[in-house]
Amino acid sequence: MPFQLIIAISLLALTPLAQARLNILACEPEWASLAREIGGGKVEAYSATTAFQDPHHIQARPSLLARARKADLLICSGAGLEAGWLPILLKKSGNGAILPGKPGHIMAADHVRLLEVLGSVSRSMGDVHAAGNPHLHLDPRNILKIADVVKQRLQSIDKANSGYYQQRHGGFVKKWKQAMTHWKKRGSALRGMPVVVHHRSWVYLERWLELKEIAALEPKPGLPPTSAHLAKVLKQVKKSPARAIIHSPYQRQKSANWLSGKSGIPVVKLPFTVGGTPQAKDLYGLFDDTISRLLAVDG
Ligand SMILES: [Zn+2]
User: Fold this and answer.
1) Is the pLDDT of residue 225 over 50?
2) Can you give the pTM of this predicted structure?
3) For residue 7, how far is its CA from the centre of ligand 1 (angstroms)?
């Protein structure tokens, strides 16, 4: 037998071991990133959306369905963020392990205190987030809470590696807490900074850094900006000026540019999630770069 062939067969024999990693399907990049922090080499994490896709609206394409079929653990934001596509994906996948109520099903919103929980009436008025604002990942304290849930679920699904997840989680918590102290210190210069947002996807960041949201370009979360509403926002910022129009990579920039042109307020693109800017390579980069870009507004 030729030597190369022996090597090839040996590699094939090793393949099942390499594939023994847990498959994690995240709805958004931040949760895939968190899964990698806690799961390390024992998991394979895939995100259904990228930073350049609107997590409220994606197509449940066949490749995604294949990922859902073989997933051991699902991690999403919840609170209705994925209401337009996740239920269909779960149903079609036929994968009982990641259904609600199972250890393989994590909705981050179930584990943190949500902001802006509205009544059912608001949804009929066009608000897509009546169950509460689901963009909870931009408060690093929430990341810490979900890290704990991810650790517990990994330990429950993959008992053999329980100690490994415990250790990875411990290391992450220590490093994350240090980073949070550092961010809070750097971000203190941003306290009270008035901003305009496109969609209300920054409320958790605003609360944590004490930014002041003056207006949103969307008349209601989920409704595209109208000229009548934009005119109102322009009037508002003329009365009470904002220092930045915050924008995320997946949003169309037309309305933000219009307001910027009329008011002179700069459009500031923030990563919003992991991968949104070249610097936001992981969760640490996400917060580092968000703060850097906000600090640069005055620089
Ligand atoms: Zn939203």
Assistant:
1) yes
2) 0.91
3) 51
